From TrEMBL:
SUPFAM superfamilies: P-loop containing nucleoside triphosphate hydrolases. Residues 7-248 form the ABC transporter domain. Keywords: ATP-binding, Cell membrane, Membrane, Nucleotide-binding, Transport. CDD domains: ABC_Mj1267_LivG_branched (cd03219). InterPro entries: AAA+_ATPase, ABC_AA/LPS_Transport, ABC_transporter-like_ATP-bd, P-loop_NTPase. This is ABC transporter ATP-binding protein. GO terms for cellular component: plasma membrane. It comes from Pseudothauera rhizosphaerae. Gene3D superfamilies: P-loop containing nucleotide triphosphate hydrolases (3.40.50.300).
Length: 252
């Protein structure tokens, strides 16, 4: 962790009764970095992501993004500060079209400059934003489809687009490949690789091929603490990581 890290988590603690689910975790994500978080089932990955996004209150420690203290902020305030997340369960509005989903998300994050635009200019700007998001996630050909009728892979891409509407500086992706077949997984890997240019990413994922392909750095959680953190070669060669995770079944 350097003083200039984009995102810093220091000494995070979460207890559930007697269980220490997050055990003094330090984690840093640098600008432009894809940082993967891996670990066996029950290691504390979801708990950590919920602490970072503000869905769970901390029992100890602090968080900052780009020098702004996030500790104690509500989830929507963290989004405004530049931290956006995708969920394991998709947050798409299933009965609306892809375009309406994107327009709603664009509007939600439009910001105060919109107050000074005419209605027509504001609508054009929202439409431009929505179309650009669709282009980014390769859904420009599905704008008028009802979101809930899209195949699973396309819904996950739409979910990513909704998170991108907030223009995050750090994007949390919680198992983006979950439930996907090989073709959709390849497309999601290509999308995440492309997003590297616009936001840093904290990626929680069980698909080790995807993790090793994408990650600049990998942190391994075990029993709520960081067992190891380093580049892919370091993690692949780490004896304890081999023992607790890579050498065993990595499927959920
Ligand atoms: N709300 C809760 N109340 C009590 N215990 C919890 C709660 N949430 C999680 N735990 C426990 O905390 C530990 C960490 O769980 P967590 O879901 O964060 O792990 P995980 O690494 O995300 O697992 P998975 O890969 O299965 O999603 C587990 O022992 C789990 O049973």
């Amino acid at each position: 962790m350097s003083a200039a890290s984009l995102f810093q988590a220091r000494g995070l603690v979460k207890r559930f009764g007697g269980l220490l689910a997050t055990d003094h975790v330090d984690l840093a994500v640098e600008k432009g970095e894809i940082h993967a978080l891996i670990g066996p089932n029950g290691a504390g990955k979801s708990t950590l992501v919920n602490l970072i996004s503000g869905l769970l209150p901390l029992d100890g420690g602090s968080l900052s993004l780009d020098g702004v203290e996030l500790t104690g902020l509500a989830p929507h305030q963290r989004v405004r500060a530049g931290l956006s997340r995708c969920f394991q369960v998709t947050s798409v509005f299933g009965h609306d079209t892809v375009l309406d989903n994107l327009l709603l998300a664009a509007q939600a994050h439009a910001g105060s400059s919109f107050r000074f635009l005419s209605r027509r200019s504001a609508e054009k700007e929202l439409m431009d934003t929505a179309l650009a998001l669709a282009e980014t996630v390769d859904l420009a050909g599905a704008l008028h489809r009802i979101a809930g009728t899209l195949p699973h892979g396309a819904q996950r891409k739409l979910d990513v687009a909704l998170a991108l509407a907030a223009r995050p500086r750090l994007l949390l992706l919680d198992e983006p490949m979950a439930g996907m077949g090989p073709e959709d997984s390849l497309q999601m890997v290509a999308l995440i690789e492309k997003l590297r240019a616009q936001t840093a990413i904290l990626l929680i994922e069980h698909d080790m091929d995807a993790v090793f392909q994408l990650a600049d750095r990998v942190s391994v959680l075990d029993y709520g603490r960081v067992l190891a953190s380093g580049d892919v070669d370091y993690i692949k060669g780490h004896p304890e990581v081999q023992a607790v995770y890579l050498g065993t079944d990595t499927e959920t």
